Amino acid sequence: MSVASVDRRAEELDTIAAVLPIERRDELAELLTDQDVETLRHLVNEGMGVNTLRALTSDLAYLQAWSLAATGQPLPWPAPEALLLKFVVHHLWRPEQRQADPVHGMPAAVEQNLRDGGVLKATGPHAPSTVRRRLANWSTLTKWRGVQGAFASPALKSAIRLAIRAAPRQRLRKSAKAVTGDVLAKLLATCATDSLRDLRDRAILMIAFASGGRRRSEVAGLRTEQFTVEPPVIAEDDTPLPSLSIHLGRTKNSGASEDEVVYLTGRPVDALNAWLAAAKIDGGSVFRAIDRWGNVSRRALDPKAVNDIVKQRVAIAGMEPGEFSAHGLRSGYLPEAANRGIPLHEAMEQSRHRSVQQASSYYNNATRRSGRAARLL
């Protein structure tokens, strides 16, 4: 691979930096082919969601690295069934069997190659959900190239099913513990000063939670033009409360042309306004990095930084950072709504969950725990 072609791909990736993990630009330019980059540019022009594009790009880079390590060749389009089966065998294997059979699973040389390239960090077999997601994205990219793959073949489906059955894994939650109202209060108590960091972090925590448990990528990507001032909401004591609507645009759960809208009322609006005023932000990205000298960046926070902020506040509050993540703000919203007696359909309007089954799995755990069925004795 020539240096010139890598440099050209890096420049082309710069043109779609807004929707790609561009901190990996140089690595992606090494791994992806010219046709890969052209496919990604096409997907950007088609208006595919930002998070979907990031996942597609990350998985495509991994698949290309794996193919080069396992076969010595870039991914063929379409991939033959044998290569798909090899991918499953390399990623869904039994640690117990490897102890008795060293060649079981991913070959040591392939694994070391991927680790040296920085694309494989986990130890042991992959989670079945990761393998399924990568195969699904592989299938999507295959279709976008105008060819058909063997992703629906009975042999592949059977191989996945048997591999998962042979190597069961416990499904881990994205955040071991939910950030419910009592936990959120402790986190907010650590943001008690008028420093820029406290004002920013307080606004992040309150807006992420109160807007229905927004994902960290949605919080990090918020821009001032997404907010619309709404008429005040009159509280029970006749006090007018400030109100804003947030136009989320397309989200993970929305349709292709839908503009998801959620609302903020009262304290979260005050927290947002306090941060914007202190940081002198009158346009563009809402949440930004702050350097050691107190200077506010012009660029948006990285989504990972939102997760880091949650963990930092958890640690300051005297709790275990490993038990919480930014996703805890989302998984905690519906249980808190249940605890406060808010009907599920009303809570879902704010959280924007589309699946009643998924939403109720959060919501019902709280109502069942405190309900009459759990107190028969």
Task: Based on the model shown, name its key terms.
about 375 residues; mainly alpha; hpI Integrase, Chain A; 3-stranded antiparallel β-sheet; two-stranded antiparallel ribbon; 17 helices; 5 strands; elongated
Describe this structure in words.
- It is a single chain.
- The protein is mainly alpha-helical.
- The chain has 2 domains: 3-166, no CATH class; 181-374, hpI Integrase, Chain A (Orthogonal Bundle), CATH 1.10.443.
- It is 53% helix and 8% strand.
- The chain contains 17 helices and 5 strands.
- It has helices at 3-14, 25-31, 34-45, 50-71, 81-91, 95-100, 108-116, 128-144, 154-166, 181-189, 196-210, 216-220, 267-279, 303-316, 327-339, 344-351, 356-370, and strands at residues 227-234, 240-249, 260-265, 288-290, 296-300.
- Strands 1-2-3 form a 3-stranded antiparallel beta sheet.
- A hairpin with a 5-residue loop joins strand 4 and strand 5 (296-300).
- The N and C termini lie far apart (72 Å).
- The model has no long low-confidence stretch (mean pLDDT 82).
